[in-house]
Records
---
Amino acid sequence: MQSITTTLDLRQFVSRHRQAERPIGFVPTMGALHHGHMALVDRCRADNDVTIVSVFVNPTQFGPSEDFDAYPRDLERDLALCRAHGVDAVFHPGVEEMYPEPLLTVVEVADLSTILIGEQRPGHFRGVATVVTKLLNLVEPDRAYFGEKDFQQLAVVRRVALDLSMRTSIVGVPTVREADGLAASSRNVRLTPDERKAAPAIYEGMQAAVRLSARGERDTVLLLNAVRSRLAREPSIALLSCDLRDSATLDPLDRVMNRPAVLLVTARLGSVVLIDQVELHPDAIREGSAA
Ligand SMILES: Nc1ncnc2c1ncn2[C@@H]1O[C@H](COP(=O)(O)OP(=O)(O)OP(=O)(O)O)[C@@H](O)[C@H]1O
Ligand SMILES: CC(C)(CO)[C@@H](O)C(=O)[O-]
Ligand code: BAL
């Protein structure tokens, strides 16, 4: 496995494989890898001849009072995990390598970037869309893999690829969970033992809504209340947002695929913000009644 830190070496690695006409898959991450990331890597390896992973904690997607400094980092462990999973190259640039000059050019996905998480994290999706564009321009992969846990991010990235006529197919991978239902996340390691014990309530609340929806409940308020009332029993969890959306309003490509409604939750435990999403019955939202 190659460990690459410069864009020049990355381009050379890519061009060798491109000349050999080997399909290239790409998994962008911020490191502190866990089994959720590895599901993306395994899927990438199954679909492509060459798998490239990037590990870059991108400063431009963090707000001034967010956890950029506290974000977990463990490059040696990340490299070992990637090696064990048969990754061909890991690109782990420093900040100066990715941003040699202050940016004058950014990628802004209108509308999608300012709703939901974009409301709580102004500028976040501009940072994500811009760095993903830079990474996709460097690697020019055939396919790039993103987790459905970050559902809005996946929608934003799909839109960037579509609008900017990129050659890359964007592939969404289902959320990987811990045994107790908590979505695997790099930030989970920052939870205190008590917060970690409480955290599965997020998924339990979402499952209560899933069960109601499966029994035919179509009242958005009642479905969202199922989440709220489960989390109200956990004093260490502050529910930041709970939304039910027709997935097509977030992701125009879903309209074609006729995918279900999506329930999105953001919650804070101490200093850690976690997000999760589950799918509900396609009719969970009546026409035009987004929560
Ligand atoms: N549990 C998971 N299941 C599937 N994909 C995941 C999971 N966790 C992360 N991913 C995906 O891995 C990619 C890299 O994510 P990132 O490095 O930000 O990790 P993360 O665990 O989401 O971290 P964070 O603590 O920022 O939420 C993203 O496409 C993300 O959606
Ligand atoms: C897509 C990404 C690697 C861009 O920095 C990041 O937002 C992430 O890890 O989800
Ligand atoms: N996985 C999303 C990246 C972030 O929270 O900044």
---
Amino acid sequence: MKQYEVNFDGLVGPTHNYAGLSFGNVASLNNANAVSNPKEAAKQGLLKMKALADMGMQQGILAPQERPDIAMLRRLGFTGSDATVLENAAKNAKQVFLACCSASSMWTANAATVSPSPDTADGRVHFTPANLTNKFHRSLEPRVTGNILKATFANEKYFAHHTHLPDNDHFGDEGAANHTRLCTDYGHAGLELFVYGRHAFDASKPAPTRYPARQTLEACQAIARLHGLSDESVVYMQQNPDVIDQGVFHNDVISVGNQNVLFYHEQAFLNTQSSLDEIRQKFGEHPLHFIEVKTSAVSVEDAVKTYLFNTQIITLPDNTMAIIAPTECEENPAVHQYLQELVTLGTPIKEVKYFDVKQSMRNGGGPACLRLRVALTEHELDAVNPYTLMNDDQFKRLNTWVDKHYRDALTENDLRDPQLLMESRAALDELTQLMKLGSVYPFQQD
Ligand SMILES: NCCC[C@H](NC(=O)CCC(=O)O)C(=O)O
């Protein structure tokens, strides 16, 4: 049977903006208050999706969330009409208000952790939405993420959906950004690597001191249990606390894997050698490529600036691998030189393709942040909601939809405009029809 890795990219929402909400994420803080362009952001994302589909890849789309989150503002005590809620929240609790406007669901690497069917005890594909507890603006996402995932993967025979982990820092979970799967073929049992930033229940263990570690070991273990993964097919690795303190807020900013390739920076992990030994032992006899980038070739600072590791490594239909990199990597001499060499090293990676995703990069999201990987067999792919898959028709429809509903400039002040709320709801209502999702948003359920 055929098997695929399908990338489900997040569609950028109509309120894409820069509010400096993510302490520990250098780009987010540096671009606070910059003017954003939601229309361009959505189109950059659609172009990347279409380009991958045109390369012969299976490409999916995950719908964005409703923002501003009026339901949350009401839960926090703002009352009156929607316009009054917006006005009072913007005036009296600006930071809370801005958090409730973030279109951060666009980074679907943080939507959920996914375990493909060959890895799980019941032979289904398992999904656990990430609780994203470390940042208030992101903690608004998991419930609607669950609704969207259920509407996208809507067949219980093939797909199992779990509730997100408890909303507490002890179980802080950032989803697939801290999870990589190594395998020989997508349809064969794989080795799931969970990378955590700290131990929640053991303060004696190493942890970063400057910036927060968003993911805990205990969260990773809970997900492995929920998904029915065997101990032999899981490796837990601690992220190096020093790189978290240098702005590596997710593991996918410093390492990425695909099939039998693990591409990582020398400083990415805390106990590198023992973790790699465990991977080698559990992966078995098959060929495995560890591609380690030395600090002397690319500094952690350059890795964070260019998102060298927030690249997608994809297996093309001819079975060679390509790297999907942001144009920032091409513009940085050290990183560009490294990538030019990489394709000549005799690893499965043979090609680099650059994409302009600057609107996302300014908030600390590269090509890999924009996608959730779901390995599927042919039958499972047939069971996916077909309107969530990218093709020529859906590309045209979604571009027309963006042109109709999205603004091309958004400042902090625009976010309090009740007209923007109405535009966004009209856009999302139409989108749920285009993607046949049903009523996934709170405003559709009132
Ligand atoms: N995987 C990439 C996630 C980027 C995301 N940025 C943000 O939420 C920035 C939002 C703002 O600052 O407006 C984060 O840090 O979780």
